[in-house]
Amino acid sequence: xxxxxxxxxxxxxxxxxxxxxxxxxxxxxxxxxxxxxxxxxxxxxxxxxxxxxxxxxxxxxxxxxxxxxxxxxxxxxxxxxxxxxxxxxxxxxxxxxxxxxxxxxxxxxxxxxxxxxxxxxxxxxxxxxxxxxxxxxxxxxxxxxxxxxxxxxxxxxxxxxxxxxxxxxxxxxxxxxxxxxxxxxxxxxxxxxxxxxxxxxxxxxxxxxxxxxxx
Length: 215
Hints:
With 215 residues, this protein is α+β, with helices and mostly antiparallel strands. It has helices spanning 38-42, 61-70, 114-122, 135-142, 208-214, and strands at residues 4-7, 13-15, 33-35, 77-83, 86-92, 95-100, 103-110, 124-129, 157-159, 165-167, 172-184, 187-199.
């Protein structure tokens, strides 16, 4: 009987001699897979009235919390800002709608990032929603500081009405004005009203799990 491996983060089952390098569901690596005992794999319950859920091996509490957080679905976005003649952007996975009327969203930005400084000064930011071919944007905006490099060099961008730069190669873009913020320790959670939006492409948005599985 072929071996079966279970992802301890999302529960995905893989059949094969070895676990997959990357979980296709949640994106974690092979170290998060456990071999399912053959007896358990053979004793598949066929009575739909009494199907039992598998009991996952429980890691220590610190790892359990980290693995629990992995199960939260994230998108990947390029957050841009402009102040005092300087432009910058960064990759972020914390961007979500708060209300639809008024159109309001929130983003979480690390306080040490240059983008955070520009948002604090201007009170405005832009959001470019990446498509599933946007891995290069995620890397280019996510692994270096805008204090040391021009992250927009060589990229197709346009400037929005609020003054922020937005990617041309994105599913949609939004511009927002900050109307409140909350100290979240290492990060600031900015609450903002969406003032402009544009649809540039059709397609599926990039998720953090998809990025990890395809990089």
